[in-house]
Design a protein that fits this description.
The protein is an all-alpha fold. The protein has one domain. Helix 2 packs across helix 3 and helix 3 crosses helix 4. The protein is globular, with a radius of gyration of 16 Å. The mean pLDDT is 96.
């Protein structure tokens, strides 16, 4: 579990640094570039579309884990728009709250105990 937590921390730190540099150099115009690449029907668009479906799966899992409660739906939205920054933070916190119990991390407490 410690290796997993270390991976989450390293990934989060690299992504925060990279994102900061991109914002300084290119501004906050992510959505226009992201969707523009998809509309252009090239490889960058294919990658963005694939990534958007991964974000969708992440968001659905987070919402499902919280049994589609209001909080779960809000966390799902954060997962979709926050990407790996959200997911790394979320999984890191879950790893502590569940004391490293992977079954409980993946399923939630109610489903893990059923």
């Amino acid at each position: 579990m410690n290796a997993f937590r270390a991976l989450l921390i390293v990934a989060w730190a690299i992504l925060v640094g990279y994102t900061a540099i991109v914002i300084v150099n290119h501004g906050m115009g992510l959505f226009g570039v992201f969707l523009g690449n998809v509309v252009a029907m090239g490889w960058p668009g294919q990658f963005n579309l694939d990534f958007m479906f991964m974000l969708t799966l992440s968001a659905l899992w987070v919402a499902w884990r919280h049994q589609f409660s209001v909080a779960g739906l809000m966390l799902g939205l954060l997962a979709f728009f926050g990407g790996s920054l959200f997911l790394a933070t979320y999984l890191f916190i879950l790893s502590w709250l569940t004391k490293g119990d992977v079954k409980q991390m993946l399923l939630g407490k109610a489903r893990a105990e059923a």
